[in-house]
Design a protein that fits this description.
single chain, about 140 residues, 5 helices, elongated, transmembrane helix, enzyme activator activity, glutathione transferase activity, nucleus
Length: about 140
């Protein structure tokens, strides 16, 4: 909602009646940041759900909240100079990687149970719970 509000505000601020692609440099940055966030959102939802369902819900939820804050930082950074958005982008990639690795660990655990009867779910939950606070390190 914040991204859409900023896009609408910049569109009206640039003396245009609707959402036009031609506008000021500020409008172009807001529009591009909004598009970038929109394109990254389906990937985020897929790995968030997979990590939560297949591995552990609490670390996945923590990483999901962190990702939302990071995307906010990315968006606001993109409104300034483009180099200000780089930390948010890199931090977001790290969170997506963490969620992806959680998903892979959950899938591997399922196949270990299916083929060998070994369940490492407790160990995986312990490891992901211990690693998730490390996402706060910039």
């Amino acid at each position: 909602a914040f991204f859409a509000y900023k896009l609408e505000h910049e569109s009206k601020h640039c003396n245009s009646k609707g959402f036009q692609r031609q506008g000021s440099s500020c409008f172009d940055r807001v529009y591009t940041a909004n598009q970038n966030c929109g394109h990254a959102y389906p990937t985020f939802l897929a790995v968030l759900w997979c990590a939560g369902l297949l591995c552990s819900q609490a670390p996945a939820a923590f990483a999901g909240l962190m990702y939302l804050f990071v995307r906010q930082k990315y968006f606001v950074g993109y409104l300034g100079e483009r180099t200000q958005s780089t930390p948010g982008y890199l931090f977001g990639k790290r969170i997506i990687l963490f969620l992806f690795l959680m998903s892979v660990a959950g899938i591997l655990n399922y196949y270990l149970i299916f083929f060998f009867g070994s369940d490492f779910e407790i160990h995986i939950k312990t490891i992901t719970s211990a690693i998730s606070p490390l996402l706060l390190i910039p």
